[in-house]
Amino acid sequence: MATILAVDDSASMRQMVTFTLKGAGYDVEEACDGSEALGIAKTKKFDLVLSDVNMPVMDGIQFVTELRKLGEYKFVPVLMLTTESAGDKKMAGKKAGATGWIVKPFNPEQLLNTIKKVLG
Amino acid sequence: MSIDLSQFHQVFFEESFEGLDIMESSLLALDLNEVDAETINSIFRAAHSIKGGAGTFGFMQVSGFTHVVETLLDEIRSGDRDIEQEHVDLFLICVDCLRGLLSDLQAHAEPDMAQADELKVKFEAILAGTEAGVESSADSNSDSTAEAATDAVLASDSHSKGWKIEFIPCEDVLCTGNEPYRMFRELQDLAEAEPDGSMKVIPHLEKLPDFSEMHPEMCYLSWTIFVYADIELSDMEEIFEWVVDDCDIRYERLSESNQLSAEQPGIADEVAGINTDSSAEETTAVVKAAPDAIPASTPEVIPEVILEPAAPIANAADANAAEKITEKAPTKAAAKTPAKAAENTSIRVSIDKIDGLINMVGELVITQSMLGQLGQEFDMDRVQRLQEGLGQLEQNTRELQESVMKIRMLPISFAFSRFPRLVRDLSKQLDKEVDLIMIGENTELDKTVMEKIGDPLVHLVRNSLDHGLENAEERTANGKSSNGTITLNAYHHGGNIVIEVKDDGAGLNKERIRNKAIEKGLVGEDETLSDAQIHDLIFQAGFSTAEVVSDVSGRGVGMDVVRRNIAELNGTIDVTSKAGEGSTFSIRLPLTLAILDGQLVKVGEEVYIFPLVSIVESIQLEKSMLNNITGNQFVMQLRNDYIPILCLQDIFNTGAEKKDLEGAMLVVVEGDNEKVGIVVDELLGQQQVVIKSLEQNYEKVDSISGATILGDGTVALIVDVSGLNNKPLEKNSDDQTQAA
User: Which residues carry this modification: 4-aspartylphosphate (chain A) (predicted)?
Assistant: First the structure.
């Protein structure tokens, strides 16, 4: 099954995402901020990365920028978890190399549908 | 598939409350003259997370309210607006308001939105200041999109056979992880969901350079896609949503009349939710695309060369896909268990403490196996080694106990953290200028003690602010700085933690306290009292020197309640004060409620335990020291005090025979600032005892605070000294004054 790295500073969000994805059979690992996620991403390759935008230490934009610099992650889909008010953030995420976005708030079904589409 | 989101609520509430604490402390730390970007950022992040979580977990009231807060913060963060004192005050009120809303929701109660709605209006007014212009343009924007939308709706009414899509991706589309194949596959799924639906994809290879110049990461292909199914434009747009900004996508309707009808893609989903900031950009992108639109060719003209959707993928992407397949081998995720349990109370423990604990358990196991081996082939020659082993076991156990206790220990900053806000608000209210200094915030204290010491501390700080500190004029008149200072200081002393609340105010007014005490009948008019005794009077029940009951202190809860609360934690409080220089309240608490230093005593066949801190002295009784008042209640003169003499046999009705008081052993204990002598048969050792709750295991018993299990397996009761004190004093207060 596909492996997914979920990055969010909110524990409840991480739990919800992980629970949903694990329930659907994906292998999920969590990280609390961009720099932790980058460390994990360097140790193994994930099939998909989900990342929040606003995080302490290293935010989602910087994380995607750094992630894309890793050879292994050049083409890996990266979805930003953004809020509807952050229209410019959506663009910033794209510019940094994100594949797309999932707009918060989302429910587990929406999350799964989007991920299924991306991973096939 | 449906997932019950309520299982994540507890974690959401916990992190939201943490977020609110961060917001509060960051707001208080803000220096408006020199705004620190990271502080603003962390405030924003906290609000942002609360909003996102609230929306996700279905608390729309909270997310709606937080949205306006977040919007203002975002403007401040991005430099569009300078932060003002008014904002800080408003944000602080919001923090309180959100706390209330979330607490209500956590308690499954309907939150009271009155304050939130009021605040929301205020925020909207502030936001309207700069957003008025933006809003009007957004209005016109949405008008036009609405109009266009009706067109689109009309257009889609006419029956169509399908769509022709020109898809010209930007060259680096693959580098954002957007795989054209994925979009085609989705489109195909969409088409095939319709009856007789099908799809054809035609690649265009014109831009493909020579092999030597080809960059493997670039996408040189473009495609024309024919979708033979009656599907909605918005559904297709959703598929291309992530690439619409950097790729050229044109949709043309393949209608029977072969008419170009959908000139403005991107409309339908804007009808669903008009979003001022994003729609502006999207519509311009759309308009740009429209003029190039080429009239559709009829489906019949399609060349025969039709590739399967899987084929037209850029080379690099192909390799990527192949890699994906080979990587299918299960990689086991080292799933991180969430740091917090979903219980209603949880505790965060640093990894160091856990590691230390594991280390010690390891040692314990080694000792155990060593002793086990020794036990299998034991003879008297090995007594020496047995003793060594037992010594080691004792050390392991003690270390383990200490480490486990440490897990429950939290830095006192948890209790201190509320004071900056409290002092700020109070000093404003009282119109006093106050600096708060906190020392020893990392001093650790048991979690339960921490929770219970919060309220007494608040009371003391309020008290110091209200009664202790003078106002600025008075201070300058007395040659002091106009700013008063309140110092909170925590440190370890022996097995105790000491927390001091110190102010540099006027000090306790001895004369007034004394007069008040006489007025209240607490002391006789001609009694001579030492300073300490006078200071101590403020802890007496019903004593309050404030002439006016102010909003800040004097809510009917006096210092006697503070003392009682602290006594319940086996702690003590006392005060030192110097006129004109200020007062210091010192609270002394045991580090934990789970273990007690106890004095074991024997009465009849029973063993009782007195908390060591409560014992003043132990003496041998002499008949001559005793006075008998009313029946068999004895009092004894101990230096200047008369103290009642109690027998545990009477109090607990053990039925044990009472011995002659002459020569009996008397333990003088003090609780609630009253001394009492207790007759015991024998003083046993002193030891640390683990407190077991009687209430949980049996029921509440007056004058007993708990029980413990002794080394020989018997149960010993721990005497609640202050409870013991209250009993005879109530009954005999008249007798006592007579004796005095």
Answer: 52
Catalytic residue among B9, B24, B70, B282: B70
Q: Which CATH architecture has domain A3-119?
A: 3-Layer(aba) Sandwich (3.40)
Give the start-to-end residue ranges of the domains of chain A: 3-119
In DSSP terms, B227 is beta-bridged to: B163, B199
C-alpha B16/C-alpha B98 separation (Å) is 9
Reading the block at residue A101, the tokens are 């976005």
| CA–CA–CA angle B338, B344, B347 (5° rounding) | 55
Lowest mean pLDDT among B120-124, B359-363, B589-593: B589-593
Predicted confidence at residue A50, as pLDDT, reads 94
Provide the pLDDT for residue B673: 66
pLDDT of residue B344: 43
Q: Which of B17, B331, B346 to mutate to test the interface with A (most CBs of A within 10 A)?
A: B331
Q: What's the CA gap between B520 and B535, in Å, rounded?
A: 15
**Active-site residue, B606 included:** no
Which tokens sit at B478?
Answer: 């007395």
Q: Does residue B529 contact residue B523 with C-beta atoms inside 8 Å?
A: yes
Distances (CA, A) of B66 to B18, B43, B55, B110: 15, 12, 10, 17
Is the ipTM of this structure higher than 0.85?
no
* B268 pLDDT above the threshold of 60: no
Residue with tokens 């989903």: B269
Concatenated DSSP letters for B142-186? HHHHHHHHHHHHHHHHS-EEEEEEEEE--TTGGGGT--HHHHHHH
Q: Give whichever of B109-113, B310-314, B387-391, B647-651 has the largest mean pLDDT.
A: B387-391
Chain A nearest CA to B14, separation (Å):
9
Residue B70 known to be catalytic: yes
Which of B52, B316, B338 is opposite residue A75, by nearest beta carbon?
B316
